[in-house]
Amino acid sequence: VQLVEPGGGSVESGGSLNLSCEASGFAYNTYYMGWFRQAPGQEREGVAVTTRHGFGRYSDSVQGRFTISYDSSVKIMYLQMNSLKPEDTAIYYCAADGRLSTESSGAWSYAPSYWGQGVQVTVLS
Fold first, then answer.
1. DSSP state letters, 40-99
2. pLDDT digit string (tens) for 32-47?
3. Distance CA 121, CA 103 (A)
4. Residue 86 predicted with pLDDT over 90
C-alpha cells in the first residue's frame, strides 16, 4: 500500500491550494480516507475525513474553508483549501483505511492504517 502526495507549496494569506493523494496497492476500495496536519511544536491533528461515498467531516478550525473529496474510480483524494490563514501552515499528511469514531456531538476521531509522506504547506502573512 502506498499513498503519494505530489502537492504542497506556499501561498499568500487568503489564497487557495489543492492537495492530492493517490492511493495504490489496495486490494479493495478503502472506505475511509483523510487528511492530518502537524505544525512545528504541535501534535498531529485530524483535518478532514471522508468515506468513499463522499460523506466528509472536518475539524472546527477548517470547517467552511476546506473541502475533502475522493474519486474512488482512480483512487485519488483531494483537499481543496480556501481562505488560507497563516495558522494553516503545517505538514499535511494523507491517510487511508483504519477506523473512524464519532460522537453524537459531532466530534470525530480517525485512526488510519496507512500514511502518506507529508507535504509542506506554508501560508504567508
1. TTS--EEEEEEETT--EEE-TTTTTTEEEEEETTTTEEEEEE-S--GGG-EEEEEEESSE
2. 999 999 999 999 999 9
3. 30
4. yes
